[in-house]
Amino acid sequence: MWEYTDKVKEHFLNPRNVGEIDNPDGVAEVGSLACGDALKLTFKLDENKRIKDAKFKTFGCASAIASSSALTEMIKGMTVDEALKVSNQDIAQFLGGLPDEKMHCSVMGKQALEKAIENYRGAKPLEAGAKIICECFGVTDKEIERAISENHLTTVEDVTNYTKAGGGCGLCQDAIFQILEKVKAEPKAEMKPRLTNLQKIRMIEETIDKEIRPSLKQDGGDIEIIDIIGDRVLVATRGACATCKAADITLKHFVEHRLKELVSPEITVEEAAK
Amino acid sequence: MKTIYLDNNATTKVADEVLEAMLPYFTQLYGNPSSMHTFGGQVGQSIRTAREKIAAFLGALPDEIVFTSCGTESDNAAIRSALLTRPDRKHIIISRVEHPAIRALCSSLNTQGYKITELPVDKNGLLDLENLEKSLTPDTAIVSLMWGNNETGVIFPVEAAAKMAHEKGVLFHTDAVQAVGKIPIDMKNNVIDMLSVSGHKLHAPKGIGVLYVRRGTKYSPFLIGGHQEKERRGGTENSAGIIGLGRACELAARNMAKENNEIRRLRDKLEQELLKKIPQCRVNGDKNHRLPNTTNISFEYVEGEAILLLMNELGICASSGSACTSGSLQPSHVLRAMGVPFTMAHGSIRFSLSIYNTEDEIDFVIERMPPIIERLREMSPFWNQTCKTQ
Q: What is the predicted ipTM?
């Protein structure tokens, strides 16, 4: 059982501002079902350009719901510039603190707020130069760097608790460690992408072995990886799949879908020329 | 507020009869069973009786029962013993849905040079024994497969699996922590070498476990110390716990029919009514090969911890295999191994009943669950848009 403060419990049981504003001035969606939490934030400004109303819809645990509720309460009456200064720490503090393992819920609130304000200002939704480090949860190097410096994180586990990065397959934990080291040494240093092609290929092979092949084999089929070029996975069908009319559908709807879900959303699967 | 306890796969209430049997062993009969004097020796006699009761319940011989402190210790002891008595073999076969007591141990052994094969399960959580057959090698020291799954209740064909392992000269262990007391087990009718039991899953207290070790199976102790348990497990006996487990096994034998009829009926009622009243949910785990007390239901587009905490407000206790309750950020390894989609895996709730549950309690839960799910779905950014398209 988590040790939630009374304020977290209260905001979970009686969340403020649930819903969506029609014709909002700013809107953002962060997270996904796959991640285990997601937040849709909408806000509306008054004539003085202050946030008149803010509403949320959240899929997630108690602290995700409480953090969203807290965020909407906090930013009401603020200008967008003031709202941008609200940090995930402020959200946690408003709630009387969050367990370390749940800090990522407040970070999600902060991310949604930033994106909603970017949306209002018409800015590009993704930071320039940001690269995905954690493929499982789509966390970028910039987000990790920011979480590290703002929250004084020192271990990979901390980073996972705050950003979810590294909490899935764990393949990026080395990369997170590198970022920790870099932030410690020279905070301004530019990051290199850490999921190497080799790592991606290994993930694809492992996913096919563990998640895909067993199901195909049940129907007497199989596939073989012929090549992996960037995000294109070329496969050959074997066994029952090779003669099955529905093999194309299986490749797209099952094999590709699983790989997108488990390795990277960019992956496409094609049948290698026979 | 009345507590409605539907989390019996986590732990169970100590039966009144069990507590009553144990109490004298704390303040009156507190002697050490190894002592020379009658005061201690008489405790040794009670332990013998308890051992006989437990053995009878499992269809085992009394000297095949080794008392431990918990299921995890039994699991660790079994695997380590197999590796120590067969030092030339470096391969272990388990399944992808084993309890952490087995999985974490095997990951640790993996870093020490042992090779681990994790057998997959299908979408219903069932094991294909053909995969086991193919995985057995001359290097395999032991196969360890759970009898009943703690999260879904799915039952593995461990007796057939044990036979298969033996044909290749490989030891077989089963973590039967969830199965013992819920389904009939008779060690006379199978060739399983070692079997783990945990007292607190069958209305005995926490802190007492059993490792069944078949007569003739080479055994190397996990806890090395005194001569207790015929030198198979050092440490002064947990007399009260052992006496309690003996009584619990007697009760379990008597309640086995109720467990498989009455509890099963209540479980089925709960499951069917929830599926009927709540749209977009599903049962995880094969319904035909399942413990009678367990149902694991996924509610799409909501998250498990939030469901549990709203249930908690009503005094209803259950479990979730999903991300946030476990402290890790992944949905349950069991549901992932079954390929349960993410939309479903995060919102899974395990209800596990016991003979102490009543029809009224089940009716209350059936009545109160739909509004909880509806309330969270109203809050979920995925819900409305999906409803409209379906």
A: 0.85
